[in-house]
User: Fold this.
Amino acid sequence: IAAAVDIWAQGPAALPPPRQPRTPVLPVEGERNVLITSALPYVNNVPHLGNIIGCVLSADTFARYCRLRNWNTLFVCGTDEYGTATETRALEEGLSPRELCDRYHAVHADVYAWFGISFDHFGRTTTPQQTRIAQDIFQRLLARGFLLQDTLEQLRCESCGRYLADRFVEGTCPFCGYAEARGDQCDKCGKLINAVELKNPQCKLCRGVPVVTPTQHLFLDLPKLEGQLEAWLERTWATGDWTANARHITRTWLRDGLKPRCITRDLSWGTPVPLDGFRDKVFYVWFDAPIGYLSITANYTDQWERWWKNPQQ
Assistant:
């Protein structure tokens, strides 16, 4: 406290000179380098105060603090643009998914600029860099034997000539009988649903009756990684700053055993799967979207790996 009072009494003249901003911001040897991301807002709506308060404002506050400390700081964010929610909203508005994303990305950028959020770069996930990096990660997983193929049963609308993602199906909830349950969840009883479990399913696009059809998909072979993951977690739990809640949830997943996780979808709007037999599919958005942090940085600087593959700094 005494030191703080002494510095305060000396006034602003005692402060070190502010860091001169560089473009692009890159890690500097021997300095404290801080990379800040905030959760990528989904693009199919106008952002509201909850979006800003929930993640963007806290990240912005921390970024400003880091810059005041003269730490070398990069703050990136962007819109998350792939997935069925975008396709659904585009159909409602009579636009292509690309047109919808272009419209709402501009709206998001304008709103955050109006609030003065201090992003160094505000990008998006529908870029060539996203495709390149996501497909590269996929190929590495494939080469190392961490992917497997399996058959899923999905609803297919023969009238529309397409497999129906969860959001494109409505029907009667098998648990509570609610007549307007979605293909992923019942809004009345709150239970999660597999679309093929719905009674009296209907295609939301044409109101036709879909049929259950088998289709091949790719899965992350998470059980193969379970042993390595458990050993890594034990080390980081011993030395890191995990919250009690995060530890509890992670232990529960491991206790129940990891399951293979599907990473592909029968959609057209997404990052294409670069593998014969699956080229008519795209990556599931929850495989694809987290890679957006890397690709947005890559769109900011071609030296993005200095931020994302630099554990020493």
